[in-house]
Write a structure and sequence with these properties.
Elements: E1 3-7, H1 11-23, E2 27-31, H2 34-43, E3 48-52, H3 60-70, E4 76-80, H4 85-93, E5 98-101, H5 106-125, H6 128-138, H7 147-159, E6 166-169, H8 176-186, E7 194-198, H9 204-212, E8 213-214, E9 226-227, H10 229-232, E10 237-241, H11 248-260, E11 262-263, E12 272-273, E13 277-282, H12 286-291, H13 297-303, E14 306-309, H14 320-334, E15 341-342, H15 344-352, H16 358-372, E16 377-378, H17 405-423, H18 428-435, H19 439-448
Parallel strand pairs: 1-2, 1-3, 3-4, 4-5, 6-13, 6-14, 7-10, 10-13, 15-16
Antiparallel strand pairs: 8-9, 11-12
Protein backbone atom coordinates (compact mmCIF):
# COMPACT_ATOMS: atom_id res chain seq x y z
CA UNK A 1 0.00 0.00 0.00
CA UNK A 2 1.38 3.39 -1.03
CA UNK A 3 1.96 5.87 1.79
CA UNK A 4 1.24 9.59 1.52
CA UNK A 5 2.01 12.42 3.94
CA UNK A 6 -0.24 15.51 3.79
CA UNK A 7 0.50 18.80 5.57
CA UNK A 8 -2.06 21.62 5.84
CA UNK A 9 -2.76 24.04 8.68
CA UNK A 10 -6.52 24.08 7.93
CA UNK A 11 -8.00 21.08 9.83
CA UNK A 12 -11.16 20.76 7.71
CA UNK A 13 -9.20 20.93 4.47
CA UNK A 14 -6.69 18.42 5.78
CA UNK A 15 -9.50 16.04 6.70
CA UNK A 16 -11.04 16.35 3.22
CA UNK A 17 -7.76 15.67 1.42
CA UNK A 18 -6.76 12.72 3.59
CA UNK A 19 -10.23 11.17 3.40
CA UNK A 20 -10.27 11.48 -0.41
CA UNK A 21 -6.94 9.70 -0.80
CA UNK A 22 -7.77 7.06 1.82
CA UNK A 23 -10.84 6.23 -0.25
CA UNK A 24 -8.46 5.64 -3.19
CA UNK A 25 -6.68 2.97 -1.16
CA UNK A 26 -3.66 4.95 0.02
CA UNK A 27 -2.28 4.90 3.57
CA UNK A 28 -2.34 8.54 4.63
CA UNK A 29 -0.52 10.34 7.45
CA UNK A 30 -1.43 13.95 8.14
CA UNK A 31 -0.03 16.92 10.06
CA UNK A 32 -1.28 20.45 10.76
CA UNK A 33 2.19 21.79 11.57
CA UNK A 34 5.42 21.62 9.58
CA UNK A 35 7.48 20.47 12.56
CA UNK A 36 5.03 17.61 13.20
CA UNK A 37 5.49 16.59 9.56
CA UNK A 38 9.27 16.59 10.00
CA UNK A 39 8.93 14.30 13.04
CA UNK A 40 6.70 11.92 11.08
CA UNK A 41 9.10 11.89 8.12
CA UNK A 42 12.03 11.01 10.37
CA UNK A 43 10.34 7.76 11.40
CA UNK A 44 8.56 6.66 8.21
CA UNK A 45 9.23 6.53 4.48
CA UNK A 46 6.53 7.91 2.15
CA UNK A 47 5.83 7.53 -1.55
CA UNK A 48 4.39 11.05 -2.02
CA UNK A 49 4.42 14.23 0.02
CA UNK A 50 1.62 16.81 -0.37
CA UNK A 51 1.93 20.18 1.35
CA UNK A 52 0.17 23.50 1.44
CA UNK A 53 2.56 26.25 0.36
CA UNK A 54 1.50 28.82 2.97
CA UNK A 55 2.33 27.27 6.33
CA UNK A 56 2.79 29.42 9.47
CA UNK A 57 6.15 28.03 10.67
CA UNK A 58 8.06 26.43 7.79
CA UNK A 59 6.46 26.97 4.36
CA UNK A 60 6.00 24.29 1.71
CA UNK A 61 9.26 25.13 -0.10
CA UNK A 62 11.21 24.92 3.15
CA UNK A 63 9.66 21.54 3.93
CA UNK A 64 10.39 20.33 0.42
CA UNK A 65 14.08 21.20 0.77
CA UNK A 66 14.28 19.41 4.13
CA UNK A 67 12.52 16.29 2.83
CA UNK A 68 14.64 16.24 -0.33
CA UNK A 69 17.65 15.48 1.89
CA UNK A 70 15.82 12.58 3.56
CA UNK A 71 14.28 11.07 0.42
CA UNK A 72 15.53 12.66 -2.84
CA UNK A 73 13.35 10.45 -5.06
CA UNK A 74 10.03 11.23 -3.32
CA UNK A 75 7.66 13.29 -5.54
CA UNK A 76 6.33 16.44 -3.86
CA UNK A 77 3.04 18.16 -4.74
CA UNK A 78 2.52 21.78 -3.68
CA UNK A 79 -0.98 23.16 -2.98
CA UNK A 80 -1.22 26.90 -3.50
CA UNK A 81 -3.73 29.73 -3.54
CA UNK A 82 -4.11 32.01 -6.56
CA UNK A 83 -2.04 34.75 -4.92
CA UNK A 84 1.01 32.53 -4.42
CA UNK A 85 1.38 30.97 -7.89
CA UNK A 86 4.77 32.64 -8.36
CA UNK A 87 6.05 30.85 -5.24
CA UNK A 88 4.65 27.58 -6.55
CA UNK A 89 6.54 28.15 -9.80
CA UNK A 90 9.67 28.69 -7.68
CA UNK A 91 8.99 25.35 -5.98
CA UNK A 92 8.75 23.61 -9.38
CA UNK A 93 12.12 25.05 -10.35
CA UNK A 94 13.58 23.72 -7.11
CA UNK A 95 12.32 20.21 -7.75
CA UNK A 96 8.62 19.93 -6.85
CA UNK A 97 6.85 17.39 -9.04
CA UNK A 98 3.60 19.33 -9.51
CA UNK A 99 1.43 22.03 -8.00
CA UNK A 100 -2.35 22.38 -7.62
CA UNK A 101 -4.12 25.72 -7.42
CA UNK A 102 -6.98 26.25 -4.93
CA UNK A 103 -9.86 25.80 -5.39
CA UNK A 104 -9.59 22.50 -7.25
CA UNK A 105 -11.71 19.47 -8.04
CA UNK A 106 -10.92 16.38 -5.98
CA UNK A 107 -10.37 14.50 -9.26
CA UNK A 108 -7.45 16.86 -9.89
CA UNK A 109 -5.92 15.76 -6.58
CA UNK A 110 -6.53 12.09 -7.37
CA UNK A 111 -4.94 12.40 -10.83
CA UNK A 112 -1.92 14.37 -9.58
CA UNK A 113 -1.32 11.83 -6.82
CA UNK A 114 -1.65 8.88 -9.22
CA UNK A 115 0.89 10.45 -11.59
CA UNK A 116 3.24 11.19 -8.71
CA UNK A 117 3.06 7.57 -7.51
CA UNK A 118 3.87 6.29 -11.00
CA UNK A 119 6.70 8.78 -11.32
CA UNK A 120 8.18 7.66 -8.01
CA UNK A 121 8.05 3.99 -9.00
CA UNK A 122 9.78 4.64 -12.31
CA UNK A 123 12.37 6.91 -10.73
CA UNK A 124 13.41 4.28 -8.21
CA UNK A 125 14.10 1.83 -11.03
CA UNK A 126 16.78 4.08 -12.45
CA UNK A 127 20.36 3.87 -11.25
CA UNK A 128 23.35 6.09 -11.69
CA UNK A 129 25.04 4.08 -14.41
CA UNK A 130 21.98 3.93 -16.64
CA UNK A 131 21.50 7.68 -16.21
CA UNK A 132 25.08 8.34 -17.32
CA UNK A 133 24.63 6.09 -20.35
CA UNK A 134 21.45 7.97 -21.29
CA UNK A 135 23.26 11.32 -21.10
CA UNK A 136 25.66 10.32 -23.87
CA UNK A 137 22.76 9.39 -26.16
CA UNK A 138 20.58 12.36 -25.33
CA UNK A 139 23.07 15.10 -26.09
CA UNK A 140 24.95 13.42 -28.93
CA UNK A 141 23.22 15.61 -31.56
CA UNK A 142 23.66 18.84 -29.61
CA UNK A 143 27.31 19.66 -30.17
CA UNK A 144 28.58 22.46 -27.95
CA UNK A 145 31.49 23.63 -25.84
CA UNK A 146 30.07 27.07 -25.00
CA UNK A 147 29.25 27.85 -21.39
CA UNK A 148 25.70 28.99 -22.20
CA UNK A 149 24.85 25.68 -23.86
CA UNK A 150 26.53 23.64 -21.12
CA UNK A 151 24.39 25.53 -18.60
CA UNK A 152 21.31 24.53 -20.62
CA UNK A 153 22.40 20.87 -20.50
CA UNK A 154 22.66 21.10 -16.71
CA UNK A 155 19.20 22.69 -16.49
CA UNK A 156 17.74 19.88 -18.62
CA UNK A 157 19.08 17.32 -16.15
CA UNK A 158 17.55 19.25 -13.25
CA UNK A 159 14.02 19.70 -14.64
CA UNK A 160 13.57 16.69 -16.92
CA UNK A 161 11.61 14.57 -14.43
CA UNK A 162 9.22 17.30 -13.28
CA UNK A 163 5.81 18.11 -14.80
CA UNK A 164 6.79 21.78 -15.23
CA UNK A 165 5.93 23.32 -18.59
CA UNK A 166 8.97 24.51 -20.53
CA UNK A 167 9.23 27.38 -23.00
CA UNK A 168 12.22 27.18 -25.34
CA UNK A 169 13.06 30.50 -27.03
CA UNK A 170 15.53 30.93 -29.86
CA UNK A 171 15.97 31.95 -33.46
CA UNK A 172 15.08 29.58 -36.29
CA UNK A 173 17.67 26.86 -36.68
CA UNK A 174 19.12 27.01 -33.17
CA UNK A 175 17.89 23.52 -32.26
CA UNK A 176 14.75 24.11 -30.17
CA UNK A 177 13.24 20.72 -31.03
CA UNK A 178 16.54 18.99 -30.18
CA UNK A 179 16.40 20.58 -26.73
CA UNK A 180 12.75 19.49 -26.33
CA UNK A 181 13.66 15.92 -27.29
CA UNK A 182 16.60 15.97 -24.88
CA UNK A 183 14.23 16.91 -22.04
CA UNK A 184 11.84 14.10 -23.00
CA UNK A 185 14.47 11.38 -23.39
CA UNK A 186 16.19 12.43 -20.16
CA UNK A 187 12.92 12.00 -18.24
CA UNK A 188 10.96 9.02 -16.93
CA UNK A 189 8.65 9.55 -19.92
CA UNK A 190 11.38 8.46 -22.36
CA UNK A 191 9.58 5.22 -23.28
CA UNK A 192 6.32 7.02 -24.06
CA UNK A 193 5.50 9.10 -27.18
CA UNK A 194 7.18 12.39 -28.09
CA UNK A 195 4.71 14.15 -30.41
CA UNK A 196 5.52 17.46 -32.12
CA UNK A 197 3.26 19.87 -33.99
CA UNK A 198 4.03 23.15 -35.75
CA UNK A 199 1.36 25.57 -34.53
CA UNK A 200 2.08 28.02 -37.36
CA UNK A 201 1.25 25.48 -40.08
CA UNK A 202 -2.45 24.98 -39.25
CA UNK A 203 -5.61 27.07 -39.05
CA UNK A 204 -7.32 27.45 -35.66
CA UNK A 205 -9.95 24.77 -36.44
CA UNK A 206 -7.42 22.27 -37.78
CA UNK A 207 -5.08 22.89 -34.84
CA UNK A 208 -7.92 22.29 -32.38
CA UNK A 209 -8.85 19.03 -34.10
CA UNK A 210 -5.21 17.88 -34.19
CA UNK A 211 -4.65 18.59 -30.50
CA UNK A 212 -8.02 17.67 -28.97
CA UNK A 213 -9.40 15.18 -31.47
CA UNK A 214 -13.00 15.15 -32.69
CA UNK A 215 -16.19 13.13 -32.43
CA UNK A 216 -17.92 11.46 -35.33
CA UNK A 217 -20.09 14.02 -37.16
CA UNK A 218 -18.41 17.01 -35.46
CA UNK A 219 -17.97 18.63 -38.88
CA UNK A 220 -18.23 17.76 -42.56
CA UNK A 221 -15.90 14.88 -43.26
CA UNK A 222 -15.65 13.74 -39.63
CA UNK A 223 -16.92 10.21 -40.33
CA UNK A 224 -14.97 8.60 -37.48
CA UNK A 225 -14.05 9.46 -33.92
CA UNK A 226 -10.41 10.53 -33.83
CA UNK A 227 -8.04 10.96 -30.91
CA UNK A 228 -6.01 14.15 -30.74
CA UNK A 229 -2.33 14.44 -29.83
CA UNK A 230 -3.11 15.07 -26.16
CA UNK A 231 -4.70 11.61 -25.98
CA UNK A 232 -2.25 9.88 -28.31
CA UNK A 233 0.63 11.17 -26.23
CA UNK A 234 -0.62 9.73 -22.92
CA UNK A 235 2.30 9.31 -20.55
CA UNK A 236 4.63 11.16 -22.92
CA UNK A 237 5.46 14.66 -24.12
CA UNK A 238 3.68 17.08 -26.46
CA UNK A 239 5.94 19.63 -28.18
CA UNK A 240 4.12 22.73 -29.46
CA UNK A 241 6.50 24.49 -31.85
CA UNK A 242 5.94 28.18 -32.69
CA UNK A 243 3.41 28.49 -29.88
CA UNK A 244 3.33 32.26 -30.43
CA UNK A 245 1.24 31.65 -33.55
CA UNK A 246 -1.63 29.98 -31.70
CA UNK A 247 -4.81 32.05 -32.31
CA UNK A 248 -6.40 33.77 -29.30
CA UNK A 249 -9.46 31.54 -29.63
CA UNK A 250 -7.24 28.51 -29.00
CA UNK A 251 -5.13 30.05 -26.24
CA UNK A 252 -7.90 29.83 -23.63
CA UNK A 253 -8.37 26.14 -24.43
CA UNK A 254 -4.66 25.45 -24.10
CA UNK A 255 -4.65 27.29 -20.76
CA UNK A 256 -7.42 24.97 -19.52
CA UNK A 257 -5.43 21.93 -20.60
CA UNK A 258 -2.43 23.09 -18.56
CA UNK A 259 -4.49 24.07 -15.50
CA UNK A 260 -7.01 21.23 -15.37
CA UNK A 261 -5.19 18.48 -17.26
CA UNK A 262 -8.32 17.73 -19.26
CA UNK A 263 -9.60 18.21 -22.81
CA UNK A 264 -12.90 18.25 -24.68
CA UNK A 265 -12.77 16.82 -28.23
CA UNK A 266 -14.39 18.89 -30.99
CA UNK A 267 -18.11 18.08 -31.16
CA UNK A 268 -18.15 16.35 -27.75
CA UNK A 269 -19.53 17.42 -24.36
CA UNK A 270 -17.42 14.94 -22.42
CA UNK A 271 -14.27 16.10 -20.65
CA UNK A 272 -11.33 13.67 -20.75
CA UNK A 273 -8.42 13.62 -18.32
CA UNK A 274 -4.96 13.61 -19.90
CA UNK A 275 -1.41 12.88 -18.75
CA UNK A 276 1.18 14.65 -20.90
CA UNK A 277 4.23 16.86 -20.35
CA UNK A 278 3.90 20.07 -22.38
CA UNK A 279 6.97 21.72 -23.91
CA UNK A 280 6.61 24.76 -26.16
CA UNK A 281 8.95 26.75 -28.38
CA UNK A 282 8.94 30.08 -30.18
CA UNK A 283 11.21 32.21 -32.33
CA UNK A 284 9.25 35.30 -31.28
CA UNK A 285 9.22 37.26 -28.04
CA UNK A 286 6.08 36.17 -26.21
CA UNK A 287 6.51 39.16 -23.87
CA UNK A 288 6.13 41.46 -26.87
CA UNK A 289 3.06 39.53 -28.03
CA UNK A 290 1.55 39.91 -24.55
CA UNK A 291 2.13 43.67 -24.65
CA UNK A 292 0.48 43.80 -28.08
CA UNK A 293 -2.46 41.85 -26.58
CA UNK A 294 -2.25 39.05 -29.11
CA UNK A 295 -1.04 36.51 -26.54
CA UNK A 296 -2.73 35.88 -23.19
CA UNK A 297 -0.69 36.99 -20.19
CA UNK A 298 -2.00 34.18 -17.95
CA UNK A 299 -1.04 31.58 -20.58
CA UNK A 300 2.41 33.17 -20.92
CA UNK A 301 3.09 32.71 -17.20
CA UNK A 302 1.86 29.12 -17.32
CA UNK A 303 4.17 28.32 -20.24
CA UNK A 304 7.27 29.95 -18.75
CA UNK A 305 7.58 27.99 -15.52
CA UNK A 306 10.97 26.91 -16.89
CA UNK A 307 12.21 29.24 -19.68
CA UNK A 308 15.19 28.16 -21.79
CA UNK A 309 16.83 30.65 -24.15
CA UNK A 310 19.10 29.17 -26.84
CA UNK A 311 21.84 31.57 -27.98
CA UNK A 312 22.28 32.05 -31.75
CA UNK A 313 25.34 30.51 -33.40
CA UNK A 314 26.98 33.93 -33.92
CA UNK A 315 27.18 34.24 -30.11
CA UNK A 316 28.93 30.88 -29.65
CA UNK A 317 31.53 30.85 -32.39
CA UNK A 318 33.72 28.48 -30.38
CA UNK A 319 31.21 25.72 -31.24
CA UNK A 320 31.64 26.08 -35.01
CA UNK A 321 34.77 23.89 -35.50
CA UNK A 322 33.17 21.09 -33.47
CA UNK A 323 29.91 21.36 -35.42
CA UNK A 324 31.81 21.33 -38.71
CA UNK A 325 33.67 18.18 -37.65
CA UNK A 326 30.40 16.52 -36.62
CA UNK A 327 28.61 17.36 -39.89
CA UNK A 328 31.53 16.26 -42.09
CA UNK A 329 31.58 12.89 -40.34
CA UNK A 330 27.78 12.57 -40.41
CA UNK A 331 27.26 13.38 -44.09
CA UNK A 332 30.47 11.69 -45.20
CA UNK A 333 29.04 8.40 -43.93
CA UNK A 334 25.54 9.13 -45.22
CA UNK A 335 26.70 10.02 -48.74
CA UNK A 336 29.70 7.64 -48.88
CA UNK A 337 32.14 10.49 -49.43
CA UNK A 338 35.79 10.33 -48.40
CA UNK A 339 35.96 13.98 -47.36
CA UNK A 340 37.63 14.21 -43.93
CA UNK A 341 39.22 17.65 -43.76
CA UNK A 342 38.56 21.35 -44.28
CA UNK A 343 41.10 23.97 -45.30
CA UNK A 344 42.14 26.73 -42.93
CA UNK A 345 40.75 29.38 -45.29
CA UNK A 346 37.38 27.61 -45.59
CA UNK A 347 37.08 27.19 -41.83
CA UNK A 348 37.95 30.86 -41.31
CA UNK A 349 35.28 31.87 -43.82
CA UNK A 350 32.72 29.72 -41.99
CA UNK A 351 33.65 31.18 -38.60
CA UNK A 352 33.38 34.77 -39.89
CA UNK A 353 29.88 34.26 -41.31
CA UNK A 354 26.91 35.64 -39.32
CA UNK A 355 24.80 32.46 -39.77
CA UNK A 356 21.28 33.97 -39.70
CA UNK A 357 19.94 30.43 -40.14
CA UNK A 358 22.09 29.21 -37.24
CA UNK A 359 23.03 25.54 -36.84
CA UNK A 360 20.52 24.37 -39.46
CA UNK A 361 22.07 26.71 -42.06
CA UNK A 362 25.58 25.55 -41.13
CA UNK A 363 24.54 21.90 -41.42
CA UNK A 364 23.03 22.46 -44.88
CA UNK A 365 26.15 24.35 -45.97
CA UNK A 366 28.49 21.55 -44.91
CA UNK A 367 26.37 18.85 -46.52
CA UNK A 368 26.28 20.78 -49.80
CA UNK A 369 30.02 21.49 -49.67
CA UNK A 370 30.76 17.83 -48.99
CA UNK A 371 28.72 16.76 -52.04
CA UNK A 372 30.45 19.31 -54.29
CA UNK A 373 33.98 18.71 -52.98
CA UNK A 374 36.15 16.76 -55.48
CA UNK A 375 38.99 15.82 -53.16
CA UNK A 376 39.25 14.89 -49.49
CA UNK A 377 39.34 18.49 -48.18
CA UNK A 378 36.56 21.09 -48.29
CA UNK A 379 37.87 24.42 -49.62
CA UNK A 380 36.43 27.91 -50.12
CA UNK A 381 35.16 27.19 -53.62
CA UNK A 382 32.99 24.40 -52.17
CA UNK A 383 31.16 26.84 -49.91
CA UNK A 384 28.17 28.92 -50.98
CA UNK A 385 28.13 31.50 -48.22
CA UNK A 386 26.49 34.86 -48.76
CA UNK A 387 25.53 37.66 -46.39
CA UNK A 388 27.28 39.68 -43.66
CA UNK A 389 30.57 38.58 -42.12
CA UNK A 390 31.92 39.38 -38.68
CA UNK A 391 35.42 39.86 -37.35
CA UNK A 392 34.53 38.16 -34.06
CA UNK A 393 36.36 34.85 -34.54
CA UNK A 394 37.94 32.02 -32.63
CA UNK A 395 41.47 30.72 -33.16
CA UNK A 396 42.27 29.11 -36.52
CA UNK A 397 45.65 27.35 -37.08
CA UNK A 398 48.29 29.22 -39.10
CA UNK A 399 49.01 28.03 -42.61
CA UNK A 400 52.22 26.28 -41.63
CA UNK A 401 50.41 23.97 -39.22
CA UNK A 402 49.10 20.55 -40.18
CA UNK A 403 46.05 21.17 -42.34
CA UNK A 404 43.49 18.76 -40.94
CA UNK A 405 40.05 19.14 -39.38
CA UNK A 406 41.26 17.48 -36.18
CA UNK A 407 44.05 20.02 -35.78
CA UNK A 408 41.59 22.89 -36.31
CA UNK A 409 39.22 21.49 -33.70
CA UNK A 410 42.04 20.86 -31.23
CA UNK A 411 43.44 24.34 -31.67
CA UNK A 412 39.99 25.87 -31.17
CA UNK A 413 39.59 23.83 -27.98
CA UNK A 414 43.05 24.93 -26.85
CA UNK A 415 42.20 28.59 -27.47
CA UNK A 416 38.89 28.23 -25.63
CA UNK A 417 40.64 26.72 -22.58
CA UNK A 418 43.28 29.50 -22.60
CA UNK A 419 40.56 32.17 -22.86
CA UNK A 420 38.63 30.63 -19.94
CA UNK A 421 41.77 30.34 -17.77
CA UNK A 422 42.53 34.00 -18.41
CA UNK A 423 38.99 35.03 -17.39
CA UNK A 424 39.37 33.34 -13.97
CA UNK A 425 42.98 34.44 -13.42
CA UNK A 426 44.25 30.89 -14.10
CA UNK A 427 42.26 29.29 -11.27
CA UNK A 428 41.78 25.69 -12.48
CA UNK A 429 38.82 24.91 -10.22
CA UNK A 430 36.87 27.91 -11.49
CA UNK A 431 37.93 27.23 -15.07
CA UNK A 432 36.76 23.61 -14.90
CA UNK A 433 33.38 24.78 -13.61
CA UNK A 434 33.01 27.34 -16.42
CA UNK A 435 34.03 24.75 -19.02
CA UNK A 436 31.58 22.20 -17.60
CA UNK A 437 34.26 19.52 -17.08
CA UNK A 438 35.89 17.88 -14.07
CA UNK A 439 39.20 19.16 -12.69
CA UNK A 440 40.83 15.90 -13.77
CA UNK A 441 39.69 16.45 -17.37
CA UNK A 442 41.00 20.01 -17.33
CA UNK A 443 44.36 18.84 -15.94
CA UNK A 444 44.60 16.32 -18.80
CA UNK A 445 43.86 19.05 -21.35
CA UNK A 446 46.47 21.35 -19.79
CA UNK A 447 49.00 18.53 -20.07
CA UNK A 448 47.94 17.68 -23.64
CA UNK A 449 48.25 21.25 -24.91
CA UNK A 450 51.31 22.08 -22.79
CA UNK A 451 49.56 24.94 -21.00
CA UNK A 452 51.49 24.62 -17.73
CA UNK A 453 52.34 27.98 -16.21
CA UNK A 454 53.33 29.32 -12.85
CA UNK A 455 50.11 31.36 -12.89
CA UNK A 456 47.90 28.25 -12.56
CA UNK A 457 46.33 27.78 -9.13
CA UNK A 458 44.00 25.30 -7.49
Amino acid sequence: MKKILIVDDEPNYLLLLSGTLQDEGYQVAKAEKSRDAISIMENERFDVFITDLAMPDIDGIGLMQIFRKVNPAMPIIIITGVGTIERAVEAMKKGAYDFITKPFELDTLRMATKRAIEFGELHRELNYSSKEAQNKYIFENIISKSKNMLDIFKLINQIADSMATVLIEGESGTGKELIARAIHYQSVRRNKPFLAIDCSALTASLLESELFGHSKGAFTGAIFHRQGLFEEGTGGTIFLDEVGNIPLSMQSKLLRVIQEREIKPVGSNIMKKIDVRIITATNKSLKDLVQKRIFREDLYYRLTIVPISIPPLRERKEDIPFLVAHFIKKYGLKNRKKVKNISREALLKIIQHEWPGNVRELENTIERALLICKGDTIDCQDLFIEGPMTGNTVYVPPKNEKNTLNSAVEESEKAYIISTLQKVNYNRTKAAKMLGVSRRTLYDKIEKYDLKTRHLSI
